[in-house]
Amino acid sequence: MEPTSLTDATEPDELAQVLLEVAPVGMMLLRPVFAAEGGDIIDVVFEYLNPIAQRKVLLPARPTESLRTLYPDDEGLFAFYQKAYLSGGRAEYEGTREVADLVFTYRLVAQRQGPRLVVSFETTTNHPIEAVAEQLHASLTREQAARQLAERQQQEVTRLFEQAPVAISVLKGPRHVVELMNEANATLLGSTREKLLGQPIMEALPELQGQGFDLVLHRVMQGETIVFREVSVELSRANIGKPDSGYYHVTYQPWRAENGAIVGAIAVAIEVTDQVLARQQLELLNQELEARVQDRTRQAHLARAEAERERGRLAQLIAEAPAAICVLAGPKFVYEFVNPRYQALFDNRTLVGRSILDAVPEYADQPVWHGLRGVYKTGRTHLADSKAVPVARPDGVVEERYFTYIEQARHNEHGEIDGVYVFGFEVTDKVLAHEQVRRLNDKLTAANQELCAANKQLMRTNIDLDNFIYTASHDLKAPITNIEGLLNLLKKSLPAEVRTDGLVATVLSRMHGSVERFTRTIGHLTDVTKLQIEFAHPPETLSLAAVLEDVRQDLLPQLTEAGAELEVDVDDCQPRVFSEKNLRSILYNLLSNALKYRHPARPPRIRMACAPEGDELVLQVQDNGLGVGDWQQARLFQLFQRLHTHVEGSGLGLYMVKKIVENAGGTITVESQVDVGTTFILRFPA
């Protein structure tokens, strides 16, 4: 059982008042006044004066004035009360005071009890005896009347003690013998006053043992006032038809003799079992109700928070929507809401709160206006796709812009149409782009028709050219053959001395060389006419390694003669865009060129590699031959171009390689450096 301090009380309880009433000396209850919480004491107020104190200081039982108001000049008295309260122990003070022309000496004994000071005092007079006698004679009648009043008050206190609704008992000595007890206390304890008076309380009521009351009484005998609120106590009360277990307010305070010595304890108790049980039940109900309220409040809060989040998300969605959105209210279509994208269409105007024709007069008698009226009248949603809408620029010029928009009816809680929602997407750029594409398509169609005609003309020209080259090469073969035969005949018919003549031999040799070059040129022209036919071979599944090996076998004598080293890395490449003959032609020309134009100071080293890159195959042919300069690389793939004349050649091979690769959808480039070597890079679809 844990006691509480008297600081829990805020008003003088009934027991304290009863005990003060019967006290044989003047007694007061005082309470300090603080400047602020935790601050200094600035005044002292009177909570209660017992009858003797009232008579001695001529004040009512509960004065309305504070100490400093009553005695503004008595700093010593205030300092005493202040010191007594702050020290928390027993303090004494003597002073003088003039009352009714008499100077009284008074002795104060103060002790702090919780938030109060309990003060007892005695007074004597130091005035000359004659004056005292006169004053006493003058006040004899008053003193007698006061004594009679005190006797009546004492009788009233005794009657009040007996009839008090609280249980009061006075326990004397260290054994706590019941000296005084009212009937209410005996009933509360489940016994009678006759059985308890004169008996040690712990022996008369053994059920109190073990509940801590003996320790509490010991502390009270040491001078401590202890207050219990709703303490649980076990008693034997079956004989009076009450439960043994109950709850009580109990106050224990020391009983002091006239000399201040503690001679016992005064106990005041009130049973509050019904109130506690009712309150506990009420608290349980309140807790359950509070839990329900909190749960519902939490649910409502969560619902509100979710609704707020939804509204926030909706507002953000509308604000960030790629569409121009507005809400029009009533038959005059007053702007009630516009999102930023809609407002941007009319950034120089105020829209909200104005009717649509007042804010945007250019809409009058336009399809957008008629659409709104139709939706408001019928409730049917109106959709317009890529329609022209007039919109005035900030400078007042009305321009035609294009929108895809939806006009939809808004209904109130009665199902009546009270407004229109508008969702619009500007498609001006798309419409203008479509118009531009249409015009370009028209131009492209005309250009295609012209190109087709030009292609047909070019095809006819190419056919004519091929026919001309074929005819010319065919027709020139016979004359040149005749010339060659005549030269041979002339050579044979000339005498030996003429053939050996220096001039004749030189002329004949030059004529034979010219005929041979002319014959080769005719052959080259014939090869060019056959090149287009070679392109027409269908593509097939190929093994690049197998085709390259076949080419290597054809060139094996030249490779051996030159002491060439050939490195091959083409296992990951399987081109499907060439005919075998065309692919063989490419590899043969590139490899034979590497041998032809090798560097005389070192044996040829040729590397052929192929690897996939994305959706392409990249074939590289690298050598360490003569190389060519930058200006020569630009002419390398031209027809009949020969950049090195120390070996035989027609200048047709690389031209044919480039044509074959490009006609297959590929590209060929060259990287070369004089006296270092050349690398051909071919890219074609995988």
Descriptors:
686 residues, alpha+beta, Beta-Lactamase, 5 domains, 5-stranded antiparallel β-sheet, 46% helix
Description:
Helix 15 packs antiparallel against helix 17, helix 18 packs across helix 20 (580-596) and helix 20 packs antiparallel against helix 22. The radius of gyration is 64 Å and the shape is elongated. Helix content is 46%, strand content 26%. It has 22 helices and 20 strands. It is of the alpha+beta class. The chain folds into five domains: 6-161, 2-Layer Sandwich (Beta-Lactamase), CATH 3.30.450; 164-271, PAS domain (Beta-Lactamase, 2-Layer Sandwich), CATH 3.30.450; 322-426, PAS domain (Beta-Lactamase), CATH 3.30.450.20; 432-529; 537-685, Histidine kinase-like ATPase, C-terminal domain (Heat Shock Protein 90), CATH 3.30.565. Mean pLDDT is 79; it is low at 1-11 and 127-141. Strand 6 (167-172) and strand 7 (177-181) form a beta hairpin.
